[in-house]
Amino acid sequence: MKTYIFDLYGTLIDVHTELYNHKIWKALSDMYACYGAIYTPEQFKQAYLKFNEEEWKRVETLHPDTYIDIQFKNVFKRLYDEAPLHAEVLSIQDKETWLLFIETEFRRLTRIRCKPYPNTIKTLQALKKQGHQIILLSNAQRSFALAEMGICGLLPYFDHMYISADYGIRKPEKAFMQKVLDDHHLNVRDCLMIGNEVGSDMQVAAACGVSGILLNTAHRKEKEIQKELETLQQEYPDFQYRIVTSGDILEILGE
């Protein structure tokens, strides 16, 4: 049995989001107004961008020299707490549940496209049938990832899921993948990391001694990818990798 460790976005799911649409900010400001936090759409947009940037800086200051991740709920909480005007409207009975609802709605409103890449489900089905272990290692918010995995029909195939916002660190931070290896007492020789980014997926694999398969789902020039991987291999000479030039995940079967 092997353990296949998968990235999510750009590897299994083709997702595209859009922030710069007035309808998004109108819908979100209306939603907050229902609970007494009053913004114009433009005020909400500017506050979101400001608070998001400040949250990244705050966490980076706490953990310098670390590839950190944030929890978006902190941004949405601050948007409520620091609204320009508050009014007595609907009360929030459970703040954590409400923030989860807001996160999910934010992602739904900003999501333009969300679909599995061709052969994603076919490949996962084949790996499960062969008895392999399948683990997710994703830079994401849990509310975003679980909803979109559900939309794409991927949830049944995963034995374990590791999502960066839950741990406050993201790929390529070595400790993120190392936790997966330690939690399940995995031998790195029996593991494969499958992803679409050299600087994230392949780098964390190389740091942990895990072989990597890079799916070229963005259809970049192979010479560019090869150059990046050769640079990575200078730092990690023992790193073993393969490029799937077509980006077709089905080609990983048999590895």
Automatic annotation (TrEMBL):
Q: Does the keyword Ribonucleoprotein apply?
A: no
| Any one Gene Ontology molecular-function term assigned to this protein's record | hydrolase activity
> What InterPro entries is this protein classified in?
HAD-like_sf, HAD-SF_hydro_IA, HAD_sf, S-2-haloacid_dehalogenase
Is RNA-binding found in the keyword set? no
Q: Which UniProt keywords apply?
A: Hydrolase
Q: Where is the signal peptide?
A: none
**Superkingdom of this entry's organism?**
Bacteria
PANTHER family the UniProt entry points to: HALOACID DEHALOGENASE, TYPE II (AFU_ORTHOLOGUE AFUA_2G07750)-RELATED (PTHR43316:SF3), HYDROLASE, HALOACID DELAHOGENASE-RELATED (PTHR43316)
What is the designated name of this protein?
A: HAD family hydrolase
